[in-house]
Amino acid sequence: MTANANLFAALRAAFPADLDAAAIETDTGLVYSWRDLDRASAMLANLLASLDIPAGSRIAAHTEKSVEALLLYLATLRAGFVYLPLNTAYQQAELAYFIGNAEPAVVVCASRNFPWLSKLAFQHGVAHVFTLDDDRSGTLLERASHFSDQHEIARRGPDELAAILYTSGTTGRSKGAMLSHANLLSNAQVLKDVWDWQPGDVLIHALPIFHVHGLFVASHGALLNGSKMLWLAKFDPRAVIERLPRATVFMGVPTLYVRLLQEGGLTRAACARMRLFVSGSAPLLIETFRDWEDRTGHVILERYGMSETVMLTSNPCRASDGERVGGTVGPALPGVGVRVVDDAGANLPADEIGHVQVRGPNVFGGYWRMPEKTAEEFTADGWFKTGDVGRFDARGYLTIVGRSKDLIISGGYNVYPAEIEGYLNDMPGVAESAVIGVPHPDFGEGVVAVMVPKAGVTLDADALVAALKSQIANYKVPKRAFVVADLPRNAMGKVQKNLLREQHQGLFAR
Ligand code: MCA
Ligand code: AMP
C-alpha cells in the first residue's frame, strides 16, 4: 500500500519521542505537550468524522488565534477535510461571500458572533455551526470531549485538498486558492531543510493563523521539526523581546520588525541565543534590514511567497549557501521554478525587469469553482502568473520591484483597491473613487481614498470612511480620505493612480 500523503501524517511523524515534552507554551501560562496535541486533534477529528459530512467538506474557522484554533486545523487535516481559515477582522458582508462561495459543511466561530453568523450559515445551508472562544470555551470543545482520543489518520492522496485560502484577484471578488496536501508538505519540507531547522529550535509564534505566514510557514516549520512554540495570541513587541532569550527562530511581517526596533529592550544580548529572523508577506525596507543588523547583530532572512504558492524564494540561511542580501528575496527554493518574462512571455536576462512567473510542487491546483479565472492566471506552458514584477541579479537573487496587480499590502495584510472602491462607489453622493497605497512608516503602505462627489453634492470624506468601518475588515479601512472634483485620467480614460500616489506620497511621513 502506498504511504498516506495526508500532511498531518508527516507532522505527527515528526513529534518527538518524548510526547510529554512541551510543544506549545502560551502567553497565558498554559503548556501543551505533544501528547496533548495528539489527543486533542484526535478528539476533534473524531467529532468532525461523526458529522457524516461528505469527503472534501470545507471546515470554516472564524476564530481568534488560540492553540485550540490550531488544533481545529490539525484535526481537519487529520480527518481528511478541507480547512478554510477566515480572518476575524472580516465582517458580515465579507463572510456572506466566503460562506456562499465555499459552501462549508461546518462553521466554527466565536460565541459573540454566533447569533448573526449562525443565521448566515443557516441561510447558506451549513448544517453545523460550533463556537470556539480563545479561553477554551464553546460548543466545539464541549462536543469533542465526548469522543475518543484515538484516531486513525484519514488516508489522503497527495493531490487531494487540504486547505482553501481566499485571496482577492486583480478584479472582482475573492478567489479561493485550493492547496493540496502535497503543496503544503513539499513546501514545509523544503523550508525545514533550507532554513536549517535543528534539534532544540524554539519558535516565537506571534503571527495570526488565518493566513499562509502564521498558519503554514511558521506552524508547519515548528511542527515538522518537533520544535516548541512560544505562542502569543496577539503580537506584542515587549512580549516577543521577553521571549527572545528562550527562543531561536522568529518570523514576522515587516511591521513587526519596525515595531520591535522601537523598543529599547531589543539588544544584542536579548538576541544572543537567536538563530534566525525571517521576514516576508510584504517588502522589507532596506532601512529596517540595516537597523536590525546594527541593533541585534542578526541579518534578517527575507523570503517571498503567495497564498496560491506558499513559499517561492528565500535568501540563504546557511553561510555556506551564500549571503543574505537586503532588498532581495533571494534565489528560488529548491524544486521551485521562478522566471522573469517580458509582456510577450519571453525569458528576460539578469537585471531586466519583468513579470514573475512560477511553477513547482508548491503551486496550487486552481481557484475554487473558478476554472476560467484559474486558466487566466496560468500560461499555456503551465506557469502561474504571480502579478509581481521583479528582476534577477547575476547570482540568481530575485528582487520584487513592484506589482502589476492593483494590490496594497498594509501591515502584511492584502487590501484590494477594487473592493474598497466598490463599497465607496455605492455610498450616497459618491460618483466615483480611487483607492491607493502610499508609504506608511508602520504598515509599509497606508490605504488612502480619493472620492469624486455626484453633481451638487458636498461629501464628508471622514464620515464616509467612518461608515465603511461597520462594513469591512478594519485593516482595509482607508487611513485618510479626500474629496476632489475629478480623478486624473490618461488618454484612454484610465485613472492614473501613479499620479495620485505621487501627490499623496508624503501623507504619512513621520
Ligand atoms: C491593524 N490595523 C491595521 C492593520 N492591523 N491597519 C492597517 N494595516 C494593518 N495590517 C489597525 C486596525 O484597523 C485598528 O485601527 C488598529 O490598527 C489597531 O488594531 P489591532 O488589531 O489592535 O492592531 P495590531 O495588533 O497593532 O495589528 C498590527 C499587526 C497586524 C500586528 C501588524 O496587522 C498583523 O498581525 N499583521 C500580520 C499580517 C499577516 O500575518 N500577514 C501574512 C499574510 P482602528 O482602531 O482605526 O480600527 S500571508 C502572506 O502574505 C503570504 C503568502 C506570505 O508571503 O507570507
Ligand atoms: P497573498 O496574496 O496574501 O498571498 O500575498 C502575496 C503577495 O505578497 C505576493 O504576490 C507579493 O506581492 C507579496 N509579498 C510576499 N512576500 C513578499 C516579499 N518578501 N517582498 C515583497 N512582496 C512580498
From TrEMBL:
GO terms for molecular function: medium-chain fatty acid-CoA ligase activity. GO terms for biological process: fatty acid metabolic process. Residues 21-368 form the AMP-dependent synthetase/ligase domain. Pfam families: AMP-binding, AMP-binding_C. Residues 419-494 form the AMP-binding enzyme C-terminal domain. InterPro entries: AMP-bd_C, AMP-bd_C_sf, AMP-binding_CS, AMP-dep_synth/lig_dom, ANL_N_sf. PROSITE patterns: AMP_BINDING. Belongs to the ATP-dependent AMP-binding enzyme family. PANTHER family: ACYL-COA SYNTHETASE, ACYL-COA SYNTHETASE FAMILY MEMBER 3. This is Malonyl-CoA/methylmalonyl-CoA synthetase. It comes from Sphaerotilus mobilis. The lineage of its organism: Bacteria, Pseudomonadati, Pseudomonadota, Betaproteobacteria, Burkholderiales.
